[in-house]
Specification:
8 strands; about 40% helix; UbiG_MeTrfase; S-adenosyl-L-methionine; 2-polyprenyl-6-hydroxyphenol methylase activity; EC 2.1.1.64
Length: about 240
């Protein structure tokens, strides 16, 4: 797959590359990812089970979720297009002692090379950063084995999510650097569900994630107005 046809926004890659050295600092710009990681892991583990499963983390970044899944007994492959993030992810394995197989490759190309090879495919906090999210959804579906699970998480698109995920998180509370998110790329659950069904996936569960500013913690909730997780199964 040529660079010209990659489903990637160079500005997004550059943005995360500049922050790559901070991936494993739990008090850095990546603090929200560290905070929600136990929730994401529990959601995946409860539905699909991670022990002894072959899992791929699409858009793995510095490996926070990848290592968490490996720690729970999964055999994990992580893919991303940000080389600097992957370098940090590989270096952190020396410290953690976990095993993750990292590759700098587009999910579309990975789907061509490893179709139907994974028990679970995980794509968290990535869809809102790519030009063509439907292409990512199709590729994730292709990577899953028959009856395998596919997990997504992203941000809803509505006035509440703009208020909380952009204005509050980036400009008021400072949870994320300004400009982290492009509101126009947020996806409504109905839109993502349609992409998933078009890719041959069955919807299993829709779950929200909410931030409580006074307790400074995240929790799983039935409210999907801002952050949400979508679990699917390949037909």
């Amino acid at each position: 797959m040529s660079t010209a046809t990659l489903n990637v926004d160079p500005q997004e890659i550059d943005k995360f590359s500049q922050l790559a050295h901070k991936w494993w600092d739990p008090n850095s710009e990546f603090k929200p990812l560290h905070d929600i990681n136990p929730l994401r892991l529990d959601f995946i583990d409860r539905i699909a089970g991670l022990a002894d499963q072959c899992v791929i983390d699409v858009g793995c970044g510095g490996g926070i979720l990848s290592e968490g899944m490996a720690r729970r007994g999964a055999t994990v492959t992580g893919i991303d297009l940000a080389e600097k993030s992957l370098k940090v992810a590989r270096l952190h394995l020396l410290e953690s002692g976990q095993k993750v197989d990292y590759h700098c490759i587009a999910v579309e190309q990975m789907a061509e090379e490893a179709a139907g090879q994974f028990d679970s495919v995980v794509c968290m906090e990535m869809l809102e950063h790519v030009p063509d999210p439907a292409s990512v959804v199709r590729s994730c579906a292709a990577l899953a084995k028959p009856d395998g699970y596919v997990f997504f998480s992203t941000l809803n698109r509505n006035p509440v999510s703009y208020l909380k995920a952009v204005l509050a998180a980036e400009y008021v509370l400072g949870l994320l650097p300004r400009g982290t998110h492009d509101y126009g790329r947020f996806l409504k659950p109905s839109e993502l569900s349609r992409m998933a069904r078009d890719a041959g996936l069955q919807i299993v569960q829709l779950q929200g994630m909410d931030y409580q500013p006074f307790g400074q913690r995240y929790q799983l909730t039935d409210d999907v107005s801002v952050n949400y997780l979508l679990a699917c199964r390949k037909a």
